[in-house]
Amino acid sequence: MRQKSVALSMLVAIGLAFTCESEAVAVRTLKQAVVVRDGAMGNTKLATQLAVELRKQGVQAELVTFNEIVDPNWWQQTKSGIVVLPNAKRLPAEAKEPLLDFLRQGGKLITFGAPMFAEPMFKAGREWVSRQEIEELRKRIEPQKFLFERLDENEPRRWQHHASHPDVPDRLSLKPIRDLRVARHALRMDFDLKGWSIFTRTFDQSPFPQGHTLTCFWAKGAPQTKSLLVEWREADGTRWFTHVPLTTEWRLIVLAPKDFVFRADSPTRGKRGFAGDRFNPQNARMLVLGMEAPMPQGNHTIWVAGIGTAPDPFGDVVIDFAPPVLEALSPAYKLYPLRRDEGRRAQDEVKRESEVPAEPESSAVVRQEIRPPKDAVAPIPRWRGLGFTNGERTMRWMPLTVIADDEGVERGALAWLVRSSLLPYPNASWLVFGSADETFWLQNWRLVQNALQQAVTQWRNGVWMLEAGTDRFTAYVGEQTKLGAVIVNDAEAKEGSVRFAVVRNGKVVHEWSEKVKVGERSSVTVVGELPQLPAGKFTFVAQLLLDGQVIDELRHEFVVAERPKVTEADKIIVKDGHFVIRVPRPASPVPEERRWFAFGVNFWLRYVAGKEPTDYYRHWLDPTNYDPELVEQDLQILRKMGMNCVSIQYTDLRQAMPLRDFLRRCHEHGIKVNLFIASAHPLHFQPDLVRQLIEAADLANQPAMFAYDIAWEPRWGNYDERRRHDAEWREWLIEQYGSVENAERDWNFQLPRDENGNPTVPKDEHLLNDGEWRVMAAAYRRFLDDFISRKYRQVCRLIRQLDPNHLIGARTGFGGGPFGAEGAFPFDHTAGAKHLDFLSPEGWNLGWLGKADGTQFARATFITAYARWAGKGKPVFWAEFGLTLRHGEFSLDWYDDTERLQAQAQLYDAIYRLIEISDADGAMAWWFPGGYRVDERSDFGIVN
Fold first, then answer.
1. pTM of the full structure
2. What are the φ/ψ torsions at residue 807 (nearest 5 degrees)?
3. DSSP 8-state code for residue 169
4. Domain 8-132+321-462, what architecture?
5. Pairing label, strands 523-529, 482-489
């Protein structure tokens, strides 16, 4: 056993010293706390009770108001190491940076309600007012000056019509109205929407009087019309737009400059639209009303009346605000609603202090029958510290109170603790209660007491385990396995010990301890090796002891398995144009052959939702992210849904050990795996890396494996990208025609030339349009098919040499499929089809942001037929399809959008009908985890 210091932790400690010295802050102490108690925040009774409770636990608690927490001088002087926010949803926006600085200095935060700063508050006069309250008051402001003092029959002639399809019979007319007190006439717009359609009205000068910044009007729509595009164009051409939701009843719409978004295709792109830039009403010269995607195509009607302007009574209140990024606390996309109809009982985890680590089933758990309050949220699961990565993780998430349903299925945490070890918040921690409902917590005070006691005790201890466990969760018999623990110290130097144990069937089969010394605000890593163990399932336990008492514990399953083998019954084969599986028959040596349909989903774990892009792109199979218990829960959900297949990505050698564990679990659940393997792309083939990836995860011997996915949405690209293959194109022409000149004479068309006069590949317009070049274009497409076929042959030959047991495919659908992605020139299904075992189209163009389109689905049945023809009768496996819940800036309201949820259901229903009608062989939805994907601003998940 050996022990070593972590250099990075030492650097963090040095950085902390510099931070404290440069800012000259008072020395923080966990013996003192401040509890914010302010009428504008609410929850004043809870604040008082929390102060009393902290005093009972030996913490001096002081009550402060908003005035203190927005004062930088107060933050410099306070010695409190704990800050309590009885309603973290309602906080002054000015307090954001001081609170983050507090965490950067290693402060401890206790919050009720999430997300933090859900209702940022601003000073309006002497009062604190939330952004939502400002918006609510602003929505009631009626126009003080109308753009058109008198609407007459000539007004429609002053509007110009523009559309993506100029032949649409759209119409703007003036109609009398009687159900609106402020106007007698309304502009009625009738659309036959096929893409986008707008009506524009030009003004010689700004229609906004001096001091007016609000755009105000009344609007309503036909039942199927849910949104109105409103756009202002400034004198320099800058375009600012927004989409206004409509109902069938008149609604007053009030829009401030901040509500408009810069249009990326504005002529001023690069000069305007930068951070902080906004629509300037004094420069307005054109008003635009209309419709655009994602509204569904078809007939729509919109009425608009009383268009005018007004001054903003809150114009002096700056409400630009971005919430902080704190895992499991803020922004809203880190959380999900904890539904009242799902929660039935709360479970309080109680720390064990046994000499001999017990099995998980015997852990001390306190249960209480409760229903979560209406505003309750739970965090998307985060890093729980399971497994050993040699300290690569930066934080640990600990659920303290968990809500379960009647069947005992966990629905989420109602109280949780986060501990951070490294920058940007070294040694900081936040205890979160997932509701701001004061009455609920006062009625369930024991839950608060238990969580407070656990958090305060941990903080006082100072030392804790960032992670602990084995370096793999599934090991082969005879294989060497490392184990270890990373111990972090937030406080003064400590001495303690780490106890490791391996438990099987309630008995400790191996146990040892190691003393540790952890310096002030630093960390140490304890590393060892497991002895050889027989095949079986074990529980690995790591306990941190201080003064002989267990103060922290981590445990996980550890499996020792014989090296797997692929039997004939495990294989999926292709026969008579379909997937087939062999099922043993008890009374016969000859197995029964049954058609096998791949019913599944593109699989990422639930915990990828809401991650920042840098964390998201560190794959869920990376050792720092892999959590075997959450994997197991998600696989159980898949089986309950009846799914028998998942598609996953395998992109780095670091993922090999977690992948082996995942494949073992899939096999136990009867789930087959379609695995994308990196570096097998025919245009970017790296044979050595492909070999290493296959061997590292022992893929050839994995019975859960179904197929390799060797190219993810491959494409040729535009003219400049395709020019990489100029030389191969010329060689092919010489091979086929004898010379380039012979080919050009045969086509009666001359190829483009480069700066040196050499022939190049065709330009984009030659491939996207018909013309005198059509014969040349046909020859070029044949070249592409021949070229890629040779490349696919090289890839498939190597993989089959390494792994003769599993099939090979390639998801061919860049840009969503064959419709709408022509400019990127995706591979055709004919390209290399003879080397693949099945064909894999995608179905994004069948309804992504809009509703399912019947015409598109009819075309999709042809795609199945075309793919089967291209593959000469091989199976057709639909690799992706889906519909995002919404798209854009996230809010928790997304999960209440029953209309969009129904649209998702309709699309899935239509896809599965398509699959059945066209006799396809697989349907893999995109994707499994519900929640916000930050980089894409979407939520395609099928589970919450």
1. 0.85
2. -80, 170
3. -
4. 3-Layer(aba) Sandwich (3.40)
5. antiparallel
